[in-house]
Amino acid sequence: MNADKLKQYIGLFGGLASAVFLFLHTIGIQFTWFNPTSIGAFSGVLVAAIPFVLIVYGVYKNSYIITEKAKKQEKELKRRGLK
Known about the structure:
Elements: H1 3-26, H2 36-61, H3 68-79
């Protein structure tokens, strides 16, 4: 997933959430916890969580100790003197 797709997914989720909350507000259901402070806190969590997930994925993809295929690749790289 590249940055453009990630932005599209975030926009899709934000638009869907906005539509749902607007619909619920029009039928009289209000959320007291849905205010600028809670939105700011949620944004902070997203800003911290997205890089964390990307880094964990990168570490997983560049690790040779997790899967059998990766262990075989590491062994072959060592045999060829590339590692």
